[in-house]
Amino acid sequence: MHLAYPAVLAALLFCIGLYGVLARRNAILVLMSVELMLNAVNLNLVAFDVWLRDRLHSGQALTLFTIAIAAAEIGIGLAIVLAVYRNRGSSAVDRLRDTAETDEAETVPAGDDEDDAAPEPEDQATAAAGKAKKAEATP
Prior knowledge:
Elements: H1 4-23, H2 27-52, H3 58-88, H4 104-107, H5 121-137
């Protein structure tokens, strides 16, 4: 068996997995791409083990350990993705940058408009009355 065939196939799989990690936004697709990269490494380990005719079959043994670690990684990764999806409603990776909750004051951009000025006293009285009604309505 020529070593070039599995090496080229492994390189293609690894490149596809790397593209998936860098280009995808869905966390589950990113995890699948990482698995594709690990499978490319496993293919190289087995191919070099056969090519070197190792009597101990250390490449195949290392492949079994890699498969076990990949299974654990997928289990933990999917649990984290499901927990984030339940809390956030989305599994997009670009929206997971800040996991801390932000205050409303931090999300409202500061502007120099006249509309952003302090509310008039009538508005404050209306807001206080609305809060009082809401407090009375709750048991």
